Amino acid sequence: MSTRNYPELTLRGLRAFVAVEETGSVSDGAKRIGGSSSGVSQQITALEEAVGAKLFDRHSRPLKLTPAGQMLQAHALKILKAVANAQAELSEHNLTDLPKLTLAIIDDLDTSLTPALVTGLQTRFKDCFVNAYSGRSDHIIELLQQRVADICVSANIPEDIAGFHSIPLVREPFILVTAKNLITNKQHILEELEQAPFIHYSEAIPMGRTITQHLKRVRFNVPQKFALEASRSVIALVAQTNGWAITTPLNLLDAERFISEVDVFAVPFPAFSRQLYMISRALELGNLPNHLSEECRHIIENQVIPRFANIVPHMSDVIKIIKS
């Protein structure tokens, strides 16, 4: 009596299956795992032959699991989690021979965070070449998604968050920065701001878009005559035009040399804030992102926060470390 040789379940196939289920399409699933649509389709077909049943309802958009697919999903997640845990433990040993690591740090923290992190990494991995980029949040995320960077610190997180590991580091409020002595009466601060030039972050960057959206929410409409990307330029123009801007403590630190020419206040309308994250691709670097996130928190708590408290004493406690 002849026996039929059925395809075996493979980790590659299970990863493709989970990616398609979570994204709802073969093409998006392929993008998530860095493969081709045809390759993912072949993996799904092989899985269906292995289990002897269809796993997806091909007529639904997005794709939906069949009862057999729902049953396989529960097992697939358990298997992939067990494999990920094993890989993480093994990678801890293998990282001692890490040949190269590329960081991408939001430019607000570049001068205060990058040197300390790079020094710590070279102490930890003596033969590792450490490369570092800095830039705005959206560009940094692109570097991570394009595999140019291995780990990044950003105020943005990838839209396809399932393929990445994001660790919250710090939360900071948006603050008001005005030219020196621009505000003469804090009881009428909004009226005084309406009469002065508003120096805006360009809406081409996430910072500018966040500020614009909040001003719309609180219905504070002011004409925009200037839009810049760099914090140093924004704060310098605030001082030169007798104007004002909305920024954050970390961005103000980036323009520290202008601090004697400006005043700093809490925003005179409902407060808003942003968070910074350490982000890495999931399952690739073991516990290294967790170790680096602790180092980041230590640097921010012991170096960055005291530096801001020194230049803006009345806001010494506004930057908050997010504990793991």
Our count of helices gives: 11
CATH homologous superfamily of the largest domain - what is it?
Periplasmic binding protein-like II
CATH level 1 name of the largest domain: Alpha Beta
Query: What fold name stands as the CATH topology of the largest domain?
Result: D-Maltodextrin-Binding Protein, domain 2
Q: What is the CATH-assigned architecture of the largest domain?
A: 3-Layer(aba) Sandwich
Low-confidence stretches: none
Helix content: 40-55%
Alpha-beta classification: alpha/beta
The biggest beta sheet is recorded as: 6 strands, mixed
Strand % is 15-25%
Number of domains: 3
**What's the overall geometry?**
elongated
Write down how many β-strands occur, each being a DSSP E stretch of 2 or more residues. Answer: 13
* Overall pLDDT confidence: 88
N/C terminus separation: 60 Å
- Name the strands of the widest sheet in spatial order: 4-3-5-12-6-13
Radius of gyration in whole Å, from Cα? Answer: 25 Å
Order of helices and strands: HHHEEHEHEHEEEHEHEHEHEEHE
Keywords: DNA-binding, Transcription, Transcription regulation
Protein name: HTH lysR-type domain-containing protein
Family: Belongs to the LysR transcriptional regulatory family.
GO molecular function: DNA-binding transcription factor activity; transcription cis-regulatory region binding
List keywords for this structure.
six-stranded mixed β-sheet; Arc Repressor Mutant, subunit A; three-stranded antiparallel β-sheet; 3 domains; 324 residues; transcription cis-regulatory region binding; DNA-binding; D-Maltodextrin-Binding Protein, domain 2; HTH lysR-type domain-containing protein; 11 helices; alpha/beta
